[in-house]
Every structure is written in C-alpha cells, then in structure tokens.
Input
Amino acid sequence: MRGLKAMLWEASVLDPNEGIRFHGLTIPDCQKVLPSAPGGKEMTAESMLWLLLTGQVPSPEQSRQLSAELAEKGELPDFVAKLIDSLPNTLHPMTQLGMGVAALNHDSAFQAAYERGIKKSDYWTHTLEDCINLIARLPALAARIYRNVYHPENSLLPVDKNLDLVGNYSNMLGFGHNEHLTEYLRLYIALHGDHEGGNASAHTAHLVGSTLSDPYISYSAALFALAGPLHGLANQEVLRWQLAMQKEIGNEVSHDKIKDYLWKTLKSGQVVPGYGHGVLRNPDPRFIALQEFCKSRPELQSSPIIQLVQQTAEVAPDVLKEHGKTKNPYPNVDATSGCVLHHYGLTEFKYYTVIFGVSRALGALTQLVWARALGLPLERPKSYSMDALEKLIKSS
Ligand SMILES: CC(=O)SCCNC(=O)CCNC(=O)[C@H](O)C(C)(C)COP(=O)(O)OP(=O)(O)OC[C@H]1O[C@@H](n2cnc3c(N)ncnc32)[C@H](O)[C@@H]1OP(=O)(O)O
Ligand SMILES: O=C([O-])CC(=O)C(=O)O
Output
C-alpha cells in the first residue's frame, strides 16, 4: 500500500525527501513560531496541539490558556488510578498505557451523547471534548505507570495548575528539577505529535474511529500499533541495541568496530533499529532536530551513549546501502530519541514508547475531531483471496 493515496489528513503532510510539515510548517519553522513555556525555549505540546487542530499558530496567551485548561482537567479518575495500581509491574508499560486509555472511556462524552441519540452534525463537538480530556489526562496516567513500574517508593505529585502539559509530565515523572530534560521532553513530544495519516498508529486511530468508537478506545487501539518494534517501539529497541553495542565494543570506539557490529546484526537476520522508513528517503528531520538539541549542550556532546549514537549514524547508511535491501538507509527519529533520556537519567528504555504515545495523541486525536466534523465514512477497503489474486494476475 506504499504510495496509495487513500486518506484525508489535514494536520501534516510527509514528503519523502523533505520530511514532515505541520500545516505547511517545517520543524525549524515550528521551532521559530510556536510559543514556548515560561522560562523555556522549546515549543510546547499545547502550541503544537493548537496548530494541528486549527491550522493557526497560537499566541503565547492562547497557548497558556490551553495549558491552564489541560491542567484543570488533568487528574485521573480514582478507578483508573486503582486499575493501573493493580497491574503487575512486569506488564509492559505500553500495555498498561493502552489499558488505562481504554478505561478512560468510562467518561466518554461522545459515547454518552451517541446513546442519547445526537445528530451526525453534532458528533464533532463531543469528540473534541473527549480528545481534550484525554490529552489532559495522559501525563498523570503515563507518570503513574512510570512510578509503579520503576519507582514504587516515590509518591506521585498532583497536577500543578501553573505548569504546561509537559512541565507537569516531567514533574510527575520525578524530573521536574531537571530543566534540560523537561525542555527535551517538550521538543520530543511536539516533534512526535503527528506524521501524516498513514503511519500505523495514526491510521489505527482513524480506522477504529471510523466505526464511531469513541476517541478513548480509538486511541487505545492506536497505542497498540505504536507498541510494535517496526513502529514506535523502535526507540526502546535502539537503546537496547546501542547499549549492547557499547558493551561489546568497550571504550575504544571506532568506525570499523561499529561497522562490524552493524554487519553482525544484519547477518543474524535482524533489522537495524532506528534506520529505514516506509516513506522517508532522506535522514528524518526529527532526527536532525533532536541531534541539534544534543549539539547545543556540552554535557550531551560529552556523553558516551550520545557519541555512540552519532557515530553509528555516520557509519550505518553506507553499511545499509551495501546490504542493499532497505530503500532508506538513513536514521529515523527513533535512532536518537532515547539516548538523551538515557543521559539525563530516564534510563528505563521499556518506558520510552509511552512518551511517544503521550505525544502521538496530539495528531491522531485532532484528526478524529476533523473526521467527525467532515462526516468521513466507515473505512472498509477491499481484500482479495489468493485465488482471486492469481486470477487477476493471469487476466492482466
Ligand atoms: C516512528 C517510526 O515508526 S520510524 C520507523 C521505526 N522502525 C525502525 O526503525 C525499525 C527498523 N526499520 C524497518 O524495519 C523498516 O525500515 C521499516 C519498518 C521502518 C519500513 O519498512 P519498509 O517500508 O518495508 O522498508 P523497505 O521497503 O525499505 O524494506 C525493504 C527490505 O529492507 C529491509 N529493511 C528495511 N529497513 C531495514 C533496517 N533498518 N535494517 C535491516 N533491514 C531493513 C526490510 O526488512 C525489507 O526486507 P525484506 O525484503 O527481506 O522484507
Ligand atoms: O510515518 C511513519 O510511517 C512512521 C513514523 O515515522 C511515525 O509515525 O512517526
């Protein structure tokens, strides 16, 4: 289905060579025009949300108002907190996130209104209400999972009404004191927010939403698509793979040793995580933006894991070209997104895709609002049996 034009998706468009544009704006454009949090420099998640939903760049005041609204709605219902607390800490954080998001549909405005019997033309208002409530609650849910799985000794902070969405998330994760990590999370979450409609997570939200499932269960389904290693889970896999490489190579890192490790991975029949893409045919501009963040901070430049990720990106494209299979031998966003988290102390890499999941809600949910506003139909493509396919080929 590569290249098949089959969906309407307003918020962003992906060009194979140039990468993503959000309502026409490139990542550097967004970094210039989208408001940052007070005291910060990186664009906020809510300014990206505003842009994705409306196509307009919000003023700093509008962005702050949205932060205040999200903080106001940010606490988890008790029964969801209890549900998450009852899960074994050995259950993957992404499974927990998907379960928590699905359970939030208890309070779905769309589902309740549908049961009451509303007009099609009113679907979007209740969808919007659910989407905003879900985005508001994701930090408390995701932070609770982190606390339960990795730091059960810590108590959880409540939502701070004066902080932006990611400021609150970082605070509840226990990293509020680390302004560098909080800023990185702002950039990370804004950047991963949308990647047009055909990627597996956004497409899943769109498909499930097309059955008029409410936004909570539509996005829960999307999260389970994101949890696959060929998609969002690749950022966890990259860290695991780079740490294994680091262990094998030791302190004397060289391009030749990295090359040997890459070939070892390829010859064992595995993919190189963080490289290749279904659409992109150049280095991912999200990769470049996160690398620029690293280059602007001396402590990151001297970090061994960040250096190893950078050196791998210098070697891997030639190895993948020689290997000759992948259509895109360049790094995607997942090649670098986890190493900064690791450097700043968020070392539990099985958690990384949860952060991606908090982010992808921005795009996938705003497009659900538009899908309901525009009355888009049930998605139902045609499938063929092997027999029918053979007949089709013979007759053509
Ligand atoms: C946020 C994101 O989701 S970004 C993507 C994150 N995923 C990864 O980084 C995982 C590694 N990359 C991959 O597996 C792939 O490049 C994907 C899944 C991203 C894209 O898949 P496709 O569109 O099928 O890629 P492409 O058309 O280039 O694949 C052709 C062949 O090259 C292989 N290939 C592609 N990328 C890689 C890679 N990084 N390492 C080794 N082989 C690769 C494919 O497995 C396929 O092999 P096959 O013919 O034996 O089945
Ligand atoms: O676009 C894709 O297929 C995968 C991707 O990079 C994303 O969803 O962010």
Summary: The chain has two domains: 12-231+353-373, 234-343. The longest strand covers residues 12-15. The pocket of oxaloacetate ion (ligand 2) is lined by residues 195, 199, 278-279, 332 (CB under 6 Å).
